[in-house]
Amino acid sequence: MSHHIVEAADLEYSYPDGTPALKGVSFRIEHGESVGIVGANGAGKSTLLMHLNGCLLAGKGTVRVGDFPVTGQTLPQVRRSVGTVFQDPDDQLFMPTVEEDVAFGPLNMHLPPAEVESRVSASLESVNALHLRKRPPYKLSGGEKRAAAIATALSMSPDILVMDEPTSGLDPRARRKLIGLLAGFMHTKIIASHDLDMIYALCGRTIVLHEGRVAADGPTASILANHDLLAGCGLELPLSLQGCPVCANIKKAE
């Protein structure tokens, strides 16, 4: 299933002011993998994700999604394969109602009205948001906006789901529901986040970015348990791996 594959080769990108953001990033993600992208602020996570759907185009090197290099000419094909959920849901919710936002992509694919309606209902139902379909996005809570934004991506039936900080701003219950939803998405997932516990729960593989380069790429269980690696990249162990501070203090006292 080559259409599910994502590959970057020696990817470089600099911001308009000349500041380098990505410096020779290379990786290959196969069909069905769940991959976490982690790193400190400014490591290049969001910039990298924006190359995967063509919001940014490579300065040097290449990005490939399935059978297509990501170029200005291939954006329609790439964006049919890649469903993107941006860090700020307000960046992708712009229609008068939630259902119109979710229908926007399928309508632009010129699907029949019955198919559009089916996709809207199924996508909203999958994120437990059917009750929001007539609501204006600006009146939603942060968690409701996040659910609606995810539904807009799912309505395109993507082969690859790319998410930037999906748990940002969610309360604990909404976060748990989102993790459960993403665990059920069986195609390729690429998730950039500071929420290392979420990455630990969902992603079998993790890529660590540090100052625009790949500092490590391997099994999540090994990567996120490596204190020295994480510390060198401005990160800390996931809370679930840090142990109980009370117990640690008792042991020190003994």
Number of domains: 1
What are the segments in which pLDDT stays under 50 over at least 5 consecutive residues?
Answer: none
Q: How is the largest sheet built, in terms of strand order?
A: 6-7-8-3-9-10
- Percentage of residues assigned to helices: 25-40%
Listing every helix as H and every strand as E from the N terminus to the C terminus, the arrangement reads EEEHEEHEHHHEHEHEEHHHH
In this structure, how is the largest beta sheet organized?
Answer: 6 strands, mixed
Task: Output the number of helix runs.
Answer: 11
Strand content: 15-25%
CATH superfamily: P-loop containing nucleotide triphosphate hydrolases
Q: How many extended strands?
A: 10
Radius of gyration computed on alpha carbons: 19 Å
CATH-defined fold name: Rossmann fold
Look at the helices and sheets and give the structural class: alpha/beta
Can you tag this structure with a few keywords?
254 residues, alpha/beta, Rossmann fold, six-stranded mixed β-sheet, four-stranded antiparallel β-sheet, 11 helices
Structural write-up:
The protein contains eleven helices and ten strands. 37% of the residues lie in helices and 23% in strands. 41% of the residues are buried. It starts with 5 loop residues before the first strand and ends with a helix. It has helices spanning 45-52, 75-81, 98-108, 113-126, 142-154, 172-183, 196-202, 220-223, 227-232, 239-242, 245-253; strands spanning 6-14, 20-29, 34-38, 60-65, 68-69, 82-85, 160-164, 188-192, 205-210, 213-219. Helix 3 (98-108) crosses helix 4 (113-126) and helix 3 (98-108) runs parallel beside helix 5 (142-154). It has 254 residues and is an alpha/beta fold.
